[in-house]
Amino acid sequence: MRCAAHLAALGDALASIVFPTHCPACGAYVEERGGWCAPCLSRTVQPHRLAVSTEACAALDGAWAVGSYAGALGKLIRDLKYRGRRGALPYIHAALLAAKLPQEIVSADLAVCVPLHAERQTERGFNQAELIFAAWLKAQGISLSESLARSRATAPQYGLGERARIENVRGAFSLSLAEKGGALLAGKRILLLDDILTTGATLGSCAAVLRKAGAASVYALALASDRS
User: Fold this and answer.
1) How buried is residue 152: exposed, middle or buried, by Cβ count under 10 Å (0-12/13-18/19+)?
2) All residues at 6 or more sequence positions from 131 whose CB lies less than 8 Å from its CB, including other chains
3) How far apart are CA 125 and CA 146, in angstroms?
4) Strand 173-175 relative to strand 148-150: parallel, antiparallel, unpaired?
5) What letter would DSSP give residue 176?
6) Where are the beta strands (DSSP E) in the chain?
7) I need a labelling partner for 184 at 20 to 30 A (CA). Which of 7, 43, 75, 124 fits?
8) pLDDT on residue 52
């Protein structure tokens, strides 16, 4: 799988040289790689606050998505996550930088990405949430902390109902070995990041660990969501 990811990345690099750049939504020609045409960027980047499950609400102070999973953002996530196409990242970064997000999101003290299980990360070769948000976090001046670990493998959330999703991730996250004391998190405003938000079960489970470690607040941000 890692070899396939490297080949996909090489293919993206070659494609950027050989082929002209296009808007990822409509295919119109744009001047630079990672660019969108203005109408598609406006339609795609629509930050909105999300309703999440009751259990997630108990740990999260709020959850936001940059746009809808149905459309260009969803395709970019799938290209990166399942096909290893890092050529999707410039378009994702441009969308994030264009998003006008609320103060509670951009004023976070620390960011934490939802972790993958070690076996899944080895297989994939990366954590997609870290790649998705890296450039945006740097632009905002928010440090990324590896404070969470996935302590057991879980089944994919896709296709599960809300209650099954909650049970699937219950107890699946813990503080990382480097953060067992929780000192880095105590009293901090934490921004919890993931690629997709559906019911919020995964983010809620992660947030519960962060709150127990003393985080003052935990807001979640996903690149895309399939719910309003």
Assistant:
1) exposed
2) 80, 86, 89
3) 16
4) antiparallel
5) -
6) 48-49, 62-68, 110-113, 143-144, 148-150, 173-175, 189-197, 217-225
7) 124
8) 83
Q: Indicate the residue type of 68.
A: S
Instruction: Name the more confident of 219 and 121.
Output: 219
Q: Is the pLDDT of residue 130 over 80?
A: yes
pLDDT digits (tens, 9 = 90+) for 69-91: 999 999 999 999 999 999 999 99
The C-alpha atoms of residue 11 and residue 32 are separated, in whole angstroms, by 18
Q: Are 110 and 145 contacting, i.e. CB atoms less than 8 angstroms apart?
A: yes
Task: Collect all residues with Cβ–Cβ distance below 8 Å to 70 and sequence separation of at least 6.
Answer: 226
Q: Tell me which DSSP letter residue 162 carries.
A: H
Average pLDDT for 186-211: 93
φ/ψ of residue 65, rounded to 5: -130, 150
- Token pair for residue 173? 């996250």
